[in-house]
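Lab channel / #folding
Pinned by the channel admin:
"Please post every new chain as: sequence first, then the structure tokens as a reply. Keep commentary short and put observations after the output so the thread stays searchable."

First post following the new format, from NK:
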Amino acid sequence: MEQIQVGDSKCGGGISRNGAVVSVGAATSRFDTLPEDCISMVIFHTTPRDACVVASVSRTVKSAAESDLVWEKFLPPEYSSLALPPSLDCSSKKKIYLSLADDPVLIDEGKKSFWLEKSTGKKCYMLSAMDLKITWSDSPAYWQWVTVPESKFEKVAELCNVCWFEIRGKISVKMLSKGTHYSVYLVFKRASSRSYGFDHTPIETEVGFAGKEVRKTFVFLEPSDTDPRSGYGYSGVSLAAVSRAFRTRRPWMRFPREEVEGERESGGNVEEPKERGDKWSEVKLGSFYIDDG
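Reply from TO:
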């Protein structure tokens, strides 16, 4: 018996008779023939990155992908209350989105900055030193509050000399994007080429939720390839002597320093600072996840 199969072909629909495909003239419908509002609703359920990619399909799809219907969905609900640049053309929701992705804005009386991750629209924040709890930050002998032209914040905290280095920060989970993995970084800059004390001093960090178990790790504030003697303000004192002096003056250091140094040298899970594009440095302190609940 001769077998006839009906199925799909490269031309759309077709009939196969003993392996020979006969086209029946059915062509697939084009996405851009749909009403523009329908196309916008489809793109509405994607991501900012997807919207930018699909805009290259055709003029019709581009118009739908750049519509306010799509980009207002990508914006956070509170965007209208943010201090946007006066020169920004707010008639386009996409322009507002791109502005928030490229240029962070100050919030909370200038104590925080806020921006959007460009490809996903997830909320990002930076807490200024004024929004952190820094031990002895009110003592000029240990910390000074200075103005730095390249900083977005009015004041930054400059460390002078301290034997107890402790900084704490917190943010409400309600401000963050749901279903998102967040990483926490310390952003800093060496105030002087003669600063010292952190190249061989691992810092213990904790990241987590208040009232719950936190994850502890160790970080360094100086990269391992830094000359350990280049920053010391000690004249004629050996590195070993300086290290002993710091250990003696810091009896609160109870962590296994030698073990952390060994982990660092072997390329283990010890974070080191990396230079950012703005000439500041950052080091990862930890991460956490905000669920969908």
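NK: The chain has three domains: 34-107, 128-168, 170-293.
TO: also worth noting, Confidence is low (pLDDT under 50) at residues 1-28, 228-255.
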